[in-house]
Structure formats: structure tokens, C-alpha cells
Design a protein that fits this description.
Length: 279
């Protein structure tokens, strides 16, 4: 009886109670912390999966858009090769041909010709609003591209401020001394599609050239989106290592908030699709 009484007194001592309480609290907090870490990890994994699925869908949509332009440019070039040089300017059948191509895409692009003498001719009959010196072959000297499509940076219509992307193909031997067709894609076409799909609030979808040029973007703050999408981390660190990935953009200095980024560099076009979401 005496020995049992002593053991009861030991358990009842304040120091023992405090130690046991602390051990219990430590165990509980360990469980809470581990649960939070696991939940956060699962949340990040779910976010990554969702963003990568969205990026893949956007990649396919963008690919189809530029495949259409590629097909249009090839068809236009073949049409031009079958006719005498310079005969298209006053040929109503050429405008009818281009109108048919444009109608199939919801008039999302115009077709211009860079003529052999360096002038610019709009196939739709509108007055071209890019000066000839900008529409010359030098226009695409710094464009993203190579043997296939070349995509220049956006240019603005001085009367409407609407942005368009000039898209052309590398000239074949048969067409090097002929008029060169250029598709002028409405940036708003891409922007509307991206805006309908971007994560909210604060999400960003951007289409970039491989040199980091922002070609189209959908975001609440477009300037912020541009600085994030073409940031040094994405093009200087992640993209050279992986053509597609889900990463965390966290620049030193705190200029921009941390954001999740899913990106994909299209293998068949000089384009990069980027999706950003708040961390």
C-alpha cells in the first residue's frame, strides 16, 4: 500500500504533470504540422495537375490556330505561283479567294502581300497601315522562327489601336522573287480565348515567342503579366532545362509575388504557352 501511494504521489507532482503535458502538446503539434505539410503538398500537386492540363489544352488550341495560318499561307503562296507576277492587285478572284479563307476562321486574320518592289498590298482591299520599310523582309529579321513559320511581335493599327501578329513562312525557291503573303492575326482572338480559361482571381495566360517576346496575354494586370511571363527565371533558368514543366516562380527581392507556373514550348512552332496562378 505504501509503495502504491508513493507512485501516485510521483504522478501527481507538478513537474511530472508539466512534462507529460508538454510531451502531449508536442505530439499533437507534430501531428498537426505533418498534416498541414501533407495537405499543402497534396494541394500543390493538385494545382500542378490542373495547370498542366490547362496548359496542354491551350497548347493544342494554339497549335491549331497557327496550323490554320500555315495552311492559309501555303495555299496563298501556291495561288500566287500559278499567276503572273503582280497580277493579283487588280484580280477580284484573289480577294474572293482570301475572303473565303478568312470566313472559315471568323475573320480572325487578314492577308497582306509584301510585293517584289517592297510595297505592301492588303488582299482584303483595305489600305495597309504598316509602312513599307517595316513590312519589308527586315520586318522578320528578329522574328521568332526559322525554316517554318516566322512570327513577329505585335503591331498596332494606328487608327484602332488593335494589335495584330505578323506571321509568314520561309520563302521557297519558287517564290523568293514573288510577292510574299503575310497573315496578320488579330491578337484579340487569342486574348478572348485565353481570358475565358485563365485561373481566377489573379491568374495569367500568356503566349510568348521563344525569345521571350509577349505575343498575347490575358490577365487582370497586363503589365504585371508581361513582367512575370517573360521573367528571367522562366527563360533563364527553367525553359533551357525543360521544354515543359510545372514550377514555382519566386524571384529574389520580392518585386513580384510567388506564383505557380506551368509552361510548354511548342516543338513545331516558335511559341511558348505559359499559365500562372497565385501561390
Amino acid at each position: 500500500m505504501e509503495r502504491k501511494s508513493i507512485r501516485g504521489e510521483e504522478w501527481a507532482r507538478p513537474r511530472t504533470v508539466v512534462v507529460l503535458t508538454l510531451l502531449l502538446l508536442a505530439a499533437l503539434w507534430s501531428v498537426v504540422i505533418v498534416s498541414m505539410v501533407v495537405a499543402r503538398r497534396d494541394s500543390i500537386a493538385a494545382t500542378g495537375g490542373a495547370l498542366q492540363q490547362l496548359t496542354h489544352a491551350l497548347e493544342e488550341q494554339t497549335r491549331q490556330q497557327f496550323r490554320l495560318l500555315d495552311t492559309v499561307l501555303v495555299a496563298t503562296d501556291h495561288w500566287l505561283q500559278e499567276r503572273p507576277l503582280g497580277s493579283t492587285r487588280n484580280d477580284p478572284s484573289f480577294r474572293h479567294f482570301i475572303d473565303g479563307l478568312r470566313a472559315s476562321s471568323g475573320d480572325s486574320f487578314d492577308i497582306w502581300l509584301l510585293t517584289a518592289d517592297g510595297s505592301t498590298f492588303a488582299a482584303t482591299g483595305k489600305e495597309p497601315w504598316i509602312p513599307a520599310q517595316l513590312a519589308s523582309s527586315d520586318r522578320f529579321a528578329h522574328a521568332s522562327g526559322g525554316a517554318g513559320l516566322s512570327i513577329g511581335p505585335p503591331v498596332a493599327d494606328p487608327t484602332t489601336s488593335a494589335l495584330r501578329l505578323p506571321v509568314t513562312r520561309a520563302a521557297s525557291r519558287a517564290s523568293r522573287h514573288r510577292d510574299t503573303p503575310v497573315a496578320m492575326l488579330a491578337v484579340e482572338t487569342l486574348r478572348r480565348s485565353y481570358d475565358a480559361q485563365r485561373p481566377r482571381p489573379g491568374g495569367v495566360i500568356a503566349l510568348l515567342g521563344r525569345d521571350g517576346t509577349v505575343l498575347a496575354e490575358a490577365a487582370d494586370d497586363r503589365q504585371h503579366a508581361r513582367s512575370l511571363a517573360k521573367g528571367a527565371l522562366l527563360f533563364g533558368q527553367h525553359l533551357p532545362q525543360q521544354s515543359r514543366a510545372f514550377v514555382l516562380l519566386d524571384e529574389d527581392g520580392g518585386e513580384h509575388p510567388r506564383m505557380f507556373a506551368s509552361y510548354s514550348s511548342l516543338p513545331d512552332f516558335p511559341l511558348v504557352v505559359v499559365v500562372l496562378e497565385d501561390y
